Structure formats: C-alpha cells, structure tokens
Amino acid sequence: MLRLKATFRKFITLLAWELEEIPYLLLGTIVFSTTIYVLYPGVSHSAGSLRIGELIERDSLKFKASIQDYLFYPSLIIDAIEPLAAFLAGILFATNVARTFENKELQTLLTCPVKRTHVILSKFCVNYSILYISSAIPFLLDMILLGISSLSLDIYIWLLILAFPILFACSLAIFISVTLKMSAFSAVLPPLIYFGLSKALDTSSEKTYMLLYSKWDEKLFKAIQDWITLQSVPQIGVEFLYIFLYRFLLPVLLLAFSVIYFDKILQLD
After folding, report:
1. Average pLDDT of 211-219?
2. Do the beta carbons of residue 176 and residue 261 sit within 8 Å?
3. In this model, does residue 49 exceed pLDDT 50?
4. What is the pLDDT of residue 2?
5. Contact 169, 89 (CB under 8 A)
6. Domain extents for the chain?
C-alpha cells in the first residue's frame, strides 16, 4: 500500500512537471484556437442561426424536424472539432514528446528514479487533458448558449462522447512522436493521416465513412441515453462493432504500443 502511494505521488509529480514544461504561448494558442473555432458563427449555431424561440414559432412539421436537428446538433460540433484536434495534437506532442528526443531532455529526465512507463503516460495525460479541456469548455458554452440546460443529462453525454475523437488524435500523435522522434514530422503527420484515413474511407465506402465520421456520435449518444434512462437496452450490431473498433480499440492499441515501444524497445542515444 505504501509502495502504491509512493508510485502515485511520483506520477502526480511527473504530471505537474510536464504541465510546467508546456510553453505558455503554445498553451494560449491552443485555448484561443479551440474557443474561437468552436464559437465561430460558421461553426456554432448558437451564434444566431438556430434559436429555440424561433423554432417554437414554426409550424408543427418544421418544428419537429428542427427539434431533431437541435437534439443532435452537438454531433456537428464534435465532427468539426475532430480535425482541429488532430492538428493541435500533432503540434502539442511534437513539442512535448518528439522535441525532448532531439534536445536530449528525455535522457536527462530518465536519469531520475522514474519508470519509463510513467514518463510517457504522464506526457500523454497532460497533453490529452489540455486538448480535452480546451475543447470541452467552449463546446459546453456553445450548448448552453443554444438553450440546452446545464443540468440536462444530454450535455454530460455529449461531453463524454467528445473524449473519443480527442483520444484518437492524441493516440495517433504520441505514436508518431515516439516512433519517429522528430518534431517536424510529428507535427505534420497526425492531421495528414487523419485526413488520409477519412478520404480513403470516403472513397472506398461512403456508408462506412458516414458511420465512422458523421453518424457514430449520434448513434452512441442515443445508445448511452437509452441505457442511462432505462428506456431500452442498446442493440450491439455490426455498426456498433465498427464504432468500437475504430473509435476506441484502435486509439487504445496505438497508445499501448507507444508505451510498450518506449518502455521496452526504444533505445535513447
């Protein structure tokens, strides 16, 4: 028990140290970019193009169609955040991970009595938290401005779903940073791979592309909502298997491989 507490304290210390090492300019740029992007009128319906009061004034048919769009509107924001997350994750991990290989900072850190696994996981946790929080706050504000109550269960389900595309972007970025160890490639490749995967899926199968890049969050939202409210038991079909494999298992495997490679295989010069 004492050993576990000591390990936990060391990991917390590593997290604090990693957070201090993030350049304030980069941190401010990420917060500014995500806030402006999410709340920009071209992305955000809360900026004026959709108002609940206006919806109520419409006739019943249009009202029902608009309400359905309103309920699933946050999925559009998540779809918009995802490419930005891939771009920012590349820059963040290139700065916080790949560059530490180039300037020998990592070798210095590993001379301390810390485990390699803790070092790489602390970097991932800090970078993931920065990206998630900087995206979640304007996303939450946008939903509140739209008219969704801050006490509504829907908001917290959408915030949970937002974690998945951020996990995908961060797992891809840390995988590239650890394997290539070059900040330039680590910054550029994550968004390129993200857009390459989406383009390849769009070209090969439009139905699969729509499921994994457009409809997945709506389906996941509805399943979680039904499960929590006990309205029905979510049916686990082929579509949910695809979503699980692409949106959860693939990022987890990328992260696991990155940790194992850094811990067991990677040789530091």
Report:
1. 86
2. no
3. no
4. 66
5. yes
6. 2-265
